[in-house]
Specification:
The protein has helices at residues 8-24, 28-37, 51-54, 58-74, 79-88, 119-141; strands spanning 90-101, 104-114. β1 and β2 (104-114) form a beta hairpin. The protein contains six helices and two strands, in the order αααααββα.
Amino acid sequence: MTDQPYTEDDLRAEAASQHAGLTEDPEFMCIGEAMDDDIVASTEDGPNLTWGDLLPDEDAFNTAQKRIRDLIVGAADLSEWAVNLGADGLEPDEHQLGFAAGTTPIVRIHFAFASGLSAEARDALVQGIGEAAAREMQLALHL
């Protein structure tokens, strides 16, 4: 029992609400300022170019900046999930499973694990879930 007039769930709900609010309407100029110093991911194994290096033309830079803003605004709100992961001490992992109907994604599963869980255990868990989900997806799609 806590001596506070709120619960852990109240704290998590408020954190998720504020997290979501930070991405609802990002400031265009802040995105551009962040891009100035960020290395473009596709150049990390080579010349390590920033967005400013890669796009010295202002119009090209602004086009990329607008597209990045659109991606942020259009992103799924995973705020509650992210807050709960952090509060539970879980870390997002690059493992993911995806299922598609033709070229259209219909299901995607992302994973988060406790930091002490070995890579082998993570791999085995994801493989097992993937095999089970694939069987169920086949059944569901053939009904």
